[in-house]
Amino acid sequence: MSETVLSLRGLALRQGAQDVLLGLDLAVARGELVALMAPSGAGKTTVLRVVAGLAPFDDGEVVVGGVALPPGRLPSGGALRALRRQVGMVFQQHFLFDHLTALENVTLGPLRVLGTPRDEAEERALGLLSSLGVGGRARALPRELSGGEAQRVAIARSLAMDPPLLLMDEPTASLDPARRGELGASLSLLRAEGRTLLVTTHDREFTERFATRVAVLADGVIVEEGEPAQVLTRPANPATRRLLQSGISASGGAPGANLRGEGA
Amino acid sequence: MEADPADPTKVRGFDVDVAAELARALGRAPRFVQVAFSSIDASVVRGDFDIGLGGIEETPGRRAALAVTVPYFEFREVLTVREGDRERFRTLADLAGRRVGTLGGTIAYELLLTAREKSGVVPVSYDDDVNPYSDLARGRLDAVLLDHILAERSVRRNAGLVVQRGAVAVGHYVGVLAPANAALRDRIDGIFRDRMRDGTLRRIFERWGVWDEGQQRLFDRLIEPTSSVVEPDPSGAARPGATPRSPSMASLVVNYLPSLFSAALVTLALSCLAMALAVALGTLVATGRIYGNPIVRALLTVYVEATRGTPVLLQLFVLYYGLSSLVRLPAFVAALLGLGLNYAAYESEIYRGAMEAVPKGQLEAARTLGLSEAQVLRFVRGPQAFRLALAPMTNDFVALLKDSSLVSVITVVELTKQTSIFAVNVGSWLVPGALCAGIYLAMSLPLARLARRLEARWKAPTS
Fold it and tell me: Which residues of A sit within 8 Å Cβ distance of B?
């Protein structure tokens, strides 16, 4: 378990006049499920967007599956294509393609990017949807899906591209407690297949049950990381204690999060 | 009649002098009201003026619908050709497969339609009497069929044109009045006869160089006390204006329906092709304005704003007449390009708005799958924008269907033009107008319905 899938060193990022990240260090090894916890607005989503190549960062070193991202601009060309093969992302609002059915959402990437034959892409997509418990919804349009179903389709869409690293933004936010358990079980299966997961969450119980490690982000840096049991029950850092005391809960997402929105 | 070159706000011509003479005899001051040639009949019925004069031909339709004076001038429909074709194109029969221009809605146009059936002449309809001759000089036409007055004026203006001597047909100019004005018409008929007897009309015609033996024969017939009906012309040329009884409206409608339907096909074909061009070009322009570099974006912005900021009528004139020294576009092609280029500007703005309305999250989700920007556009942004653009696009198509009537100014005979020809011939807009409106609605209503159905099926999700 020592192979490093994601390495962030001294990651710094400003948005306008505001410093969001101030030299963040984080390493994620293959097969881990790392829960990234932070107060609302602390920049959890931003970290995921940097790793996914959707947001530029100002300074530091970002290496994803051996692909180093350049500071100061978005990756492009060969580096971008290599990055896309390494990392998949499940957005908090899912962003399923409105005009395509669940099945078409899942097959779009394999058909257009990997050049998979349609029969094969559909067979694999149906397999993924079934394994996530939404095989029966393959022909449904996104607007006909419940929040939980949409999330599973979004996960299947990312997995169809077979990325070694899967990023998930607040996956528990829109789920009731029973569904959170099912999600955790699904993610544990993915981990068992050798996939690596970096998940932002507010959910203490989910983290305790399913994460292999917790990293707490506050004031632009990782202030504490370790085993969930350790960090969640005996936090060493005052920021972690404040976070845990503030009653982080199931409700998840940042206040006023824009459902169709632009991401944080 | 024409504008006075010394003062273009004044009209001049022998018609003007005839009108002045009439007014003097009636004890009134003449006041000239200029209207489009094809609207004279409708305007006189409306009461915009008392009498319409000026190259108005005597037709059965006019006799039926209006109070028409005795004929006061005899004209010959003559062919004008380029000098080099003087020997080749002597009569309409020599012009099989050739383009022959004239004023729409005139006896000459009817003659060309008959010649199309008989000898395959291709009639080209104009809204004015100047452009047919300049198009003939440029080679867009092979001949022009109009009355000898216009023809002789044209050869003075355009070098290299000649008028063929033989008359294709003979017709007469009349004055037209509203049907309710029959009493005034009778007074005017009396005045005409008086002025024919006392030589006043002859002096006017001589002053303008249009007096000839045809006029003398006409006058002789009219001032004979027993004959108020014009007798057949001894010259033997066809006289389309002199059929004794006017046909009923029903039979006229039946006669005109096929030409209305084929004109509707022109409208439909032109609209569909122009829309296809506008959609294709609009997509490119919108894409260029979103994805292009600053230079491309600036150029496209200039195109869009210049196109939207000027009348489509002007654009059609420039394409057809303005560019004719550089590239001689066929009328249908110029119409297609003009409408297509104009609507492309509007379409591009719709598509740009629609593309910008696609949520950024949709694009980012596609990017994280590894789709290139071109693929994101093709598989996600484009299809979603298309659904948003569908309703405004349909509105534009219906608008285009109607705007296509503007192309009659560059000689394309489409539904509205054909209707106005119909209306002039039957002397009423009521029935032709209703038929025309019915055909437009039959084309546009199903479209609007189809669009509503597609829209409902692709309705954008609410969350």
Answer: 52-54, 81, 84-85, 87-89, 91, 93, 95-99, 108-109, 112-113, 141-143, 154, 157-158, 161, 259-263
